[in-house]
Request: fold
Amino acid sequence: MRLFVALTPPQDALAELDAVVAPLRPAWAGLRWASAERWHVTLAFLGQVDESRLDGLRERIERAAGRHNALRLRIGRGGAFPSAGRARVLCAHIAGEPAVLKSLGALASSVAAGARRSGAPPPDEGRRYRPHLTLARCRQPVNLKPLVESLSGFAGREWDATQVELILSKTSPQPSYQTISAWPLRPNR
Reply:
C-alpha cells in the first residue's frame, strides 16, 4: 500500500486557490497539474507500507494527533522546489503565525516518529519540513519563475486544520487518493 499522512484544507479554501490557478494551466500544458480534489498538506510521505503494519501505524498516528492542537492555517504564496529557475514542483506554501507553523512542524515530526516506531519509516525523514500544497510537477527541471511570480501575492483565507488523515495513494491507471483513517487534533481552548 502506498500511503501518506496529511491535512486536507476545506473545500472553500481549495476553491479560492483553484480560482487563481485555473487560468494559469492552459499556458503551461507541459506540467502535470494536480487536480484541486487531490490537494493536501503532507505531514509524512510513507511510500510502500506492508498491510501487516497498518494497525500499528494507525495506533501511532492516532497518538501523535492526540498530542497536538488544531492549527489555524492559510494557503499562501506560490513557490517551487528545488528552486523557481530549475523547478520540478510548483507549490503553494502554507502560511500562519510563526508559533502555529512551528506547531505544524512538530506535528509532522510526531507523525513521522510514530510511523518509524510502527515499522513504516518515511523515506524522506530528516529532511527539513516545508508545508505546501503541490500544484504541478514536471519530469525535467523547468523555469517556473513566471508562475511563481503570478502566485506570489496569493493569501487565502484562514482555516482550521482539525484532523490528520491517513491516505492511500493509487497511482494507476487513474491516480487517486482515498482517506482510510482520520483522527482529530485536540481542540483549541
